[in-house]
Every structure is written in structure tokens, then in C-alpha cells.
Amino acid sequence: MDKLMNEYTDRLPKKILEDIQDYVDKKGGINQAKLKKVLDNTVVEYENARIHPGEAVGVISAESIGEPGTQMTLNTFHFAGVAEMNVTLGLPRIIEILDGRKNLQTPAMEIYLNAPYSKGKDIKEFALSLKETKLSDIALEFSISLVESEIEVKLDKEKMKSLGLTNSHLVNGVSKQIKGFNVKDKKDSILLRSRSKEESLNEVYKAKEKIKDVHIKGVKTISQVLPVKRGDEYIIMTAGSNLSEVLQLEGVDAYRTTTNNIFEIWEVLGIEAARQAIIDEVFKVIQNQGFNIDIRHIMLVADTICVSGNIRGITRYGVVSEKASALARASFETPIKHIINAALVGEVDELNSVVENVMLNQPVPIGTGVPDLVMKSKK
Amino acid sequence: MAAKKVKADELAKAEKKADKVEATTEEKVVEEKAVEEAKGETETKAEEEKTATEVAEETTELKVEEKKKDEVIEPQETHIYKRVKSIVFSVISPKIIKDMASAKIVTPELYDKEGYPVDGGLMDIRLGVIDPGLRCKICGSKLKECIGHFGYIELARPVIHIKFVNIIMTVLKSTCRDCGRVLIPKNKISKFEEGLDAAEKEKGIEGRREKIKSIITSLKTINKCPHCKARQKKITLDKPTTFIEDDKRLSPIEIRARLEKVIDDDALLFGLSVQYVRPEWTVLTLLPIPPVTMRPSITLESGERSEDDLTHKLGDIVRINQRLFENINAGAPEIIVEDLWDLLQYHITTYFDNAISQLPPARHRSGQPLKTLTERIKSKEGRIRHNLAGKRTNFCARTVISPDPMIDLNEVGVPDVIAMKLTVPERINTWNMDHLKKFIEKGPKKYPGANYIIRPDGKKKKITDETKEASLEEIQPGYIIERHLMDGDIAIFNRQPSLHRMSMMCHRIKVLPGKTLRLNPSVCHPYNADFDGDEMNLHIPQTEEARAEAEILMEVQTQLISLRYGLSIIGCVQDGISGNYLLTKDMTLTKNEAIDLLASVGMDNFSRLPRKEKIDGKEVFSALIPEDFNFTGKTREDEEVAIKNGQLVEGYMDRANLGEGSGLLLRNIHKKYGKDFTIDLLGKIFRLGIEVLLKVGFTCAVSDTDLPENANLKVKEILNNTKKEVDNLIGMYKDNKLESFPGKTLEESLELRILETLNKARNETGEIVTSFADKKSHTMVMAKSGARGNLLNLAQMAACVGQQAMRGKRIEKGFAGRTISAFKKHDLGPEARGFISEKFKTGLTPTEFFFGAMTGRDSLMDTALRTPKSGYLYRRLSNALQDLRVNHDGSVRDASNKVIQFSYGEDGMDVSKSEKGFLNVKRIIKSVG
Questions:
Q1: Where are the domains positioned within chain A?
Q2: In the prediction, which pLDDT does A74 show?
Q3: How would residue A1 be classed by pLDDT, with cut points 50, 70 and 90?
Q4: Distance CA B472, CA B462 (A)
Q5: Which CATH superfamily is domain B575-694 in?
Q6: Contacts of B392 (CB under 8 A, 6+ apart)
Q7: Nearest chain B Cα to A97, which residue?
């Protein structure tokens, strides 16, 4: 049976063959002759369902995503139940993804864990250890002594205890991250004194704001953590995202842990992973909104974003700026800029794409415009 | 940039020239290379690459043919098999400006005393014709034929072109002020070239320039030329157009001199290819004057002439330029000359772009800013997006639409008034002559008549009662007559916003009395149309090719399966669904009634009805289904639906099976019997539904929302209990006994709990309504069949409207501590935060009404804000993806042949030929057995 199936690997996509296999297995086998007939019929149907050369698939995908876009909700926040994180959904999220933005409105991660954490052991403690603690989180007060050019930070001892921090932790952390200051431990507080004598007061004030953000503990930029039971294992959902650091942590299942920040995925896991992430994220939003869009359309958009090897948003700086034709670029946005630059380089527009030919009242090289007729002239 | 706009016209002209040469040559593809000397002041120049001998040969051949034909009227119609192959952009050089000009402009005056254009003025007749009846002095053609000719003025002093300031700046900064070489040592230039190319690839030409600057800074050659060792000074740009070198102003003359010194190889480093642009061309010495055809003057009713904005601006430029000349020649003091020079710079700058932030915009006397070149080109209303990427058409109509279920889905009802205005051209031959003569006989005022005849030489003649006889005499094979629209003609029907390709579909004309366009309610969904005053457009394709393409690719039945999700996008709607629901659920008819129904639907074969007196509704419905059709599916309420051998044996029809975008019933019929059968069947099913409703009568009544007394009591009880529960929660919160959810504050947890309780209450009332309301009531039928409305709507009318939520929360905005001053401050109770416990039937209290209005307003805002956002997203998407197409090898590629996908969608399947995106393996296996 496998042998017969193998004969068809050139003629049918893997997915369809797997479907057939699955269904046949469920039915409890099928005889050779019948299977052959099934496969042959499938080939016929598949060939009939193939997309035609020349089909303007780009426009179709754009329409398929753009049209339901008019019906999506704009409401940015959405509570999908009590135990969920706040995430951007709907149209703003789609725009965010397709723009290829680096800074998201609501970055979030889903951290999968290895046993024993995934079984719920010490899950709360583990989650808390991820959460970023900044100096301002455990400080009661920041005060500046004008005479000495010193900054004193009063500490919340109770909070520190619950987080398992000692003063030396802080002194280490602060002195590493703030340059030009001597840090002193004073039991209930820490003291920063400028190393250079003529440090202006202005600098000290600036330093005061800076040390508030000093990172003490946990994973940077992760501001909230929430252990959740999904299926029969525990996972941690976070607000804020830092894929590269989280993946290195002990106890984290690096194979399944993910973030909604596509740029991070690209940096850490590469462009193929980013492409998949775009597809998944867009598809998630669309399903959440209750729309029905075929995954092929999203794939095509994701592929256009990722072909260059970088993430190129669908903006005038991204995908559109890479078009070969100056007229096509000009017809989108900032036409003057594109025409001027084209003139300076002496650009040649070969009129290969759609808009230029529309401008010149010529047939467009898409669909029925693709085939050319070649004739021998009568002698 | 002046001529950028006339580019298309120029090209057209070039084509026309070529046409004359090879008028009747058959499929001869002439590849014409049009070289556009673009930018700054663009001009198009078409080179005809055609040898004289070739032309001669063709003409002799032609003559022989003509003698044979012996025709009275020489056929003039030409087929243009000609294409612009490519366009080259470049900066126009002073030499070309001079060469292409037909006149030198020397005076700012426009007309003399007699109102005749002044020679050497801005409206010089050598620049083109804008008055009807005159012939162009240069090309000899008439108005509309002559596309105008450029002139030029000689600037007294050179002037910086505002659009090239950046490149001038870069070149000045990166080249030696003495020897003009780039400030990179000779031996290192080739080393950096690679990096420059990479930068250009990454960030375009601007990236390249940035990179040059950074290289020079990093080489520290900024102060001393590595070639001639001259000391360099610091150059700054005082925006918009003043260059300053060490506190001394650089005049455009000096700048031009320096740019001239840049050698070709160095220019190439900046990305400037000298074949198309020499650096010094960015400083203007000559200014091209655009032809009058692109700045026509308007004659007002009073006989006064009103000039175009560009003419005004050019007038300023010429005037100042002349004054500058005079002052220089008269040896005026330097300061006066400088002032005038600056003024000239200002006028030329605003001539190119009137929105430079550092300059006050040039204005009309009335104070409104002039629309100069840049403003003409850019933005949505500019030349590119308004005139080039979008075009207008003739042979179209637009009016209000209204429904007509009795016409087919692929028909469109056209009012007779429109049918007599829009025409289809038909060519006369010996076979159709008599047929077409009848149209001329009727004339333009009687339907179906004809409006025009077109002679083979292209002359168009109107048919009137007077000319009718003459026209009848005149016509012979080869003539074209434009006859009125008739039933069965092809038209393209469209409703804006055209968001997907189903927004423009091809319908067949059906001429009907009345004044509106009629369409079958079933096709409303793809157009997203309703009949509350919507208007739609109708286009009549005029050539055989266009009609064929419309018919094959765009007709309604070809669009049945959505290419977005692979299911039927056209289905039954509204009455069509509720009617079939009633019919197939439980209805028995007498034989006569059943035959009546089927006959009114358009059936004439009743043999499939069972031979008995009482006929079940399911059997009537089954009579429409083909006999060899098998199907199993689910209803909306998850009950089995089974069709065996064309008989509906189990279940009933509702939206899940008949509606658009759901269920596989329609998809399977389409797969098995094809598009034409499906569309016909769909029309019949829809009409069947309507006929059923006509028979039983169908209406909504207030009494549909009546509940029995005990149900009302139950609702009240639920609401009271809920209120107590919420009060209880608030009490717990106040006593600090409430437990908070993980990751949430106490307040948030309370809100969540209250919201949950209130929603639960509304749902419970809804359930009561569902169980107590009259199942046979028509409101209920509509909700259950999915034709319109849902149970929630009914519950809101009959029991309780429920919580009004904004942004997923209860209403919280308002005065300090409360939503409306009718409540106490910090009241967290349900009614103070937007819970409406009343029902719509009895009416809301004033505070409740206010909360309802709040959410209503919120949703209006949401729609208003969303439309432009999603519109922009869509524009960006379609602009980015528009060139992608499937190649013959199955790969998806863009316009420059870059592979986007090796196989479309990873399996090369067309969504609109799939079943919900898949190949239905299960069905195939089943069919094999």
C-alpha cells in the first residue's frame, strides 16, 4: 500500500496523501485496486482544482484580507475570560503585524515548561522569578542631597525579602549598570555618590531618573506573569516579551515557547520561523473575529513580507519600496520623491507590472494579459 | 517636473505619428522605445525605429490591395499593435530644453489689446492651441489633436532646483572645493564601491548618499582633499535653498561651477549616471515653459479670461527674470541684483513646490495658495492617482437599486430610459443587414431602436427622425450601428466600495419598466447591497473581446464560490430561507397547491411529485433537487439533514444549508452539476421560499414578543436575584472579603464578577424567552431559520435588554465617581453602571435610555474610525501584492520575476476550486466505495 502511495508523491501534495492515508486507516484498510482508483480520481480532481497560470493571486489575497478588514472591530482590548492576558486584537493587531513593527502595543509570551514545572510544581515561584524587578519596584523613596551630590534610595525591606533580594544584590546591579557613581550599602538604603568631583547637579538629577529603571532581577521587559493551566499542563503567560533570554532559562521548554513579537522570533529563530509566526498570528486574529479566510492568502502575504530575508512591512518603506518600477512606487505614496530619485539614477522602467501599464493604457501582464500571440508574417 | 504630466500625451502623440506610417499593416508588433527625459522638467521623446525602406514596401502592398477592393469609402479603422516598451527617467539638460522648445519666452504679457496672444509671451501660439478652430503653427493639427509644445526662458542668473537640493548638498560636501574630485583617495575608491552598492540596495539612492558621507567622515579626509591637498571648508545648508560655506554664501553660479568640475566617474559614485544626469544640470540656467495645453485659460461668462495657476506663477518668473536682466545690464548695484535674484529663486522654487515649509506659499489675490507642479502630481486628487492610475469611462449608468426576486440571479433589470441611452455597437454584414435596419427604422425614441450609425471611416452620425431615411439608404456592410440595449446583452454591474472582485460582476440585461436598476436579492451579499437608497453602476462593454472576457470571467455564476474561503458566497437570503424552512419543517399541501407552488417557481415538470393527495413540504422541495444527488449535513441546531437520491429524507432547510458562506450543500451541487445549474437552482429555491410565504402569509407582530404571565414573573425573579447577588458581591468587596483573581486587582476582580453575573442573568432571561415564546410566531421562525435576527434580539424585546458594555467593561466614564447625576457617587450597583433591566417592548427608563445611547454612539464611532483605517490597510496590501501572479511553472512571482512562492499556497490549489480550502478526500473515497 505504501508503495502505491509513493508512486503518487510527484503527482499529489503531501497533505492530500496524508489525508487519504488517515482516512483509509480509519476505515480499516482498503484493497489495492480501490486505493488505486481513489488515488487516480484524486489526481484528476487535484489537477482540476489547480490554480491557473496568470492568476492574479496577489490581488486575490489582498482582497481576501482587506474586505473583512472593514468589518473587524477596532476595540483594542479584549478580555477573553478571567484568566487571560490583555492582548491587542482585531484590526489594530493585523495592521501591527503587516506593518512589521518592532514595538508592539501588547507584547506577550506563552512560556511552556519542562517537568516538573509543567506539572504545577513551584509554578508560582517560577513565574515570579521571570518577572522583571526594577529598582523603583523595591524602593520607597529616591532623595537627592544637594550638598553632597548624592542620591539615596530607601528600600522596601519587606518586598525585598519576598523577592529574596539582599542589599548586595542591589549594590552589584546598580554599580554595574550606572557608570560614574560609587555605590554604598547603608542597610535600609543605598547611596550613590558621583565619582567625578565636578558632577553638575543636572547630571545627578538625570542619574536619579536612570537608576529607577535599573534592572535588578528577572527577565528584562517582562512586566506581568500569569501561570495558567492549559490542557493538563501549566504554562506561563506574560505581558512583555524577551524570547532570547527566556529560551535560555532552565526549565523552559524551548521548543514550544513562543512570543507574539515577530521581530524577536526573526532575530532568535530566523526568517522561516518568522514567516510561520506571521501566519499563525494573523490567522489567530481572524479566527478570533469569526471570519473565514483561507490560509493560502495569509501565507502569500507572509511570504511577501519575508522573501528578502528581512521582515519588510507592507508600507512605503518596506515591500513597496522594493518594487522595480519607479512608476509603480510613485503611484503608491510620495510620488515626487520616487520620480526625482529615478531621474537622478537614470532608472529604466521596463513596464513589467500592473499600474504602469494602466497609466499607459496598455494591457496589464496579468491574467488574460499574460499570453502574447506570435505570428509569422505572410510572405 | 513641468512636463511630467504631459508624458502620457507625448507618448500618445508619438504613437499616432507611427500609426500614420503603418496604418493598415496587420499584426505588426512595433516595439517602440520611448525614451523619457524625465525629471525636473520632464519631456518625452519618442524615437521611431523604423527604416524608410520598410515603410515604402508596406505602402506599395497596400495599394495593390486597394485596387482589388474597389471601395467607395476607404476603411480608416486602425488596429494599434504597438506598445511602449520602457520608459527612461532622467534629468533634462539645458541643451534638450533648448532643442525641444518651439518658442523663447521674453515677456510676461499674455495678450495684446485685441486679446490676441503676444509673440514671446506665455500664451504664445507656438506653444499649442487652446482655442477651437485654430490650427497649431508648429504641428498643424487642431485643438485636441495638438498636444502642445514647450517653450523656454533664459534665466538671467542660475537658480537652484528645489527638488535637487539634497543631492547638491551631498555632492558639494563630498567633493573637493578646488579640484572637484570626490574626497576619497584614489586607491580606496574601488574598495568602497561594493559597500555603496549594498547601501543602495538596502535603502535606495538616499542610502547610497548617506553611505558616501559616512565613508568620508570615517576617512577623516573631510578637511583636506586627498587629490590636490586643498583645504576644505564646512558647507551648511540654510533651508530651503541657500548654501553657506564658512559664513560666506555660495551663489548658484559658484555651485554650478563646482558641480561642473565633478568628473563622470565620481558622479557615478553618487549614483548619478552621467548619461542621464550631469550634476550641474541640477542648477537651472534655462527653464522650460510648459505648453499652454497643460495650463489652459478659462473664459468666464463675462468674457473675461481667467488664467491657470501655473500661468500666474510663470508670469511672476518671467517678470522678475526680465527685471533682473535689465538691472544687470544697467549695472545696478550688487545689492539690488542679489535681491532680485533671491526673488527669482523664490518664484522658481514655489513654481515647483508651493508647500516648502520654510517659504510662505505663493497666493492668489484672493489669498488662496496657488496649485503648482508638485501639488498637481501628488496625493489622491493629483495626476498620478486621479488621472493615470484611475480612469473614467463612457457607456455607463448609475441609479438607485431595488429588489426583484422574479428575475434570475445573473440578470439585471434596466429601466427602459437607460436602455435607450446606452448602446451596443453592431457591425453590419450581409446577413444581419435586414435585422439591423429595423433598429434604424425605429429611431432613437422608440424602443428598441438605434442612436448612431458609424461609417467605416470613423464618422459618427446621429439618427434622428429627419436623417432616418438617409441613414437607411446609406448603410451597407462595414457600417456600425449603435443600437439600444436589449434583453440578454452583457453588462458589468458594480457597487462601491469595490472591495473584492465580486463587487463587479457581469449580468445580462433585462429591460424593465420603472426607473431603478433591479437585482435579485440573492446577489446582494457579494455586492454588500441593500435597498435603503443604495445606488449601483452599470457598464456596457463595447468590443467583442471585452464582452467575451466579461462573460467568461465575470458572470455571476462564475463567482459563486468565494475565492476567500472556498464556499458558496451567493445563497438564499431572508424570505428565501424562512420560506423553505417553513416548507420543509412541517407543512403538508394538497396536490394542487404543490403544483401551484412549483409552477410559480418556474418548473413545468411535476412528475417527481409523489402520486398522492397530501404532499409533504419536503417532497415539494425535493422536486427541485436532481435525482442522483446525495448529501448529508447538519442544520443550525445540529440536527441531521440527509438528501438521498434527490429526496430530502431527513431534517429541514435553513441558513446553514441554503445561506451563503456556510455548509456544503450548495458547494456540492456546484461541484457535481456545474455553475449554470447551481445558479438556476438557487433562483428556483429562493422563489420557492417566497411563494411559500406568499401562501401562508408572513409578518412580524408585537404579540410575537408576548410571554405568558408566569414567564414574566420568572424573568422578574431572575433580575431580582441577580441584583441581590451583585449587592452581595459589592458588600463583600467593601468588607474586603472578596478574593481577587490572579494577576488582577481587587477592583478588577469585582468588575469581572459583576459582569459575569449580569451576563448570566441576561442569558437566563433569554432562555426563558426561548422556552416560553410561541414557537410558531414568525419572529421565532426567522430567528430559528437564520433568515434574520436571533434569539438574543427577541429576548431583548420580550424580557430584558441587558448590560450595556463599552470596551468590554461596564459603563464607567462620566462625572466624578458616577455615570449620571441621577445616581449616588461611587454607586457600583447594576443600574448605575448601565444594566438595562427593562425590555424594549415596555420601554426604557430615562437613565437606561441614556446608557443605550452611549453604546450606540460608541459603535457609530467605531465604524467611523475603522473605515479609513481598514481602507488604508487594504490600499497598502493591494499595492504591495498587485503584481504577484502564478507563472506557468506554478510558482508565484512578482513583476521582476522574483519568486515569492514556489508553489501557490504550498499545494498550488485554487481556493475557489477547493471545498473550504481542501480537496475533499472523504468524498472521493466514498464515491469509489
A1: 2-48, 51-105+260-322, 133-217, 324-369
A2: 67
A3: low
A4: 12
A5: RNA polymerase Rpb1, domain 3 (1.10.274.100)
A6: none
A7: B873
Residue B51: exposed, middle, or buried by beta-carbon count in 10 A (0-12, 13-18, 19+)?
exposed
Q: Is A223 left (phi over 0), alpha (psi -120 to 50) or beta?
A: alpha
Beta strands in B248-404 (DSSP E): 248-250, 283-289, 298-299, 305-306, 396-403
Whole-prediction pTM: 0.86
Query: B52 with B187: CB under 8 angstroms?
Result: no
> How far apart, in whole angstroms, are the C-alpha atoms of residue B714 and residue B799?
10
Which one of B6, B919, B922, B926 makes the best mutation probe of the A interface by having the most chain A beta carbons within 10 Å?
A: B919
* CATH fold for domain A51-105+260-322: PTS-regulatory domain, PRD (1.10.1790)
For residue A252, the cross-strand partners are A113
A217 membership: H or E segment, kind and range: strand A215-217
| pLDDT reading at B279 higher than 50 | yes
B271 → chain A, closest CA residue: A345
Domain B396-516 sits in CATH 3.30.1490.180:
yes
pLDDT digits (tens, 9 = 90+) for A79-126: 444 445 677 888 889 999 999 888 888 898 889 988 788 887 788 888
SS3 content of chain A, % helix, strand, coil (to 5): 45, 15, 40
Alpha-carbon distance B836 to B826, whole Å?
Answer: 19
Report helix, strand or coil for B41: coil
**Residue at grid coordinates 423553505:** B580
Question: What is A324-369's CATH number?
Answer: 1.10.150.390
Cβ-defined contact of A303 to B8 (cutoff 8 Å): no
CATH no. for B702-861 = 1.10.132.30
The answer to whether B109 touches B120, Cβ cutoff 8 Å, is no
Contact B782, B690 (CB under 8 A): no
Fold of A133-217: Gyrase A; domain 2 (3.30.1360)
Contact B866 A72 (CB under 8 A): yes
List all residues 6 or more positions away from B729 whose beta carbon is below 8 Å from its beta carbon: B738, B750, B753, B754, B757
Q: How confident is the model at residue A132 (pLDDT cuts 50, 70, 90)?
A: confident
Query: With 60 as the cut, is the pLDDT of residue B67 above it?
Result: no
Nearest to B885 among A19, A58, A349 (CB): A58
Cα gap B508→B490, rounded to integer Å: 5
Contact B129, B135 (CB under 8 A): yes
Q: How far is A221 from chain B (nearest CA, A)?
A: 17
Q: Are strands A258-259 and B87-88 parallel, antiparallel or unpaired?
A: unpaired
**Is the CB of B499 less than 8 angstroms away from the CB of A77?**
no
Nearest to B884 among A58, A94, A292 (CB): A58
CB B407 within 8 A of CB B688: no
Contact by Cβ (8 Å): B94, B285: yes
Among chain A residues, CA nearest to B268? A345
Residue B472 to residues B77, B212, B435, B461, B467, Cα–Cα distance (Å): 22, 76, 12, 12, 9
Q: How confident is the model at residue A65 (pLDDT cuts 50, 70, 90)?
A: very high
- Nearest-CA distance A56 → chain B (Å): 5
Peptide bond preceding A116: is omega within 30 degrees of 0, i.e. cis? yes
> In B, which residues are within 8 Å of A49 by CB distance?
909-910, 913-914, 919
ipTM: 0.89
Q: What is the pLDDT of residues A251-286, one digit of tens each?
A: 889 899 999 999 999 999 999 999 999 999 999 888
Count the residues in chain B. Answer: 929
Whole-number Å distance between alpha carbons of B688 and B583: 9
Q: Tell me the three-class secondary structure of B59-118, residue by residue.
A: HHHHHHHHHHHCCCCCCCCCCCCEEECCEECCCCCHHHHHHHCCEECCCCCCECCCCCEC
Residue type, B289: I
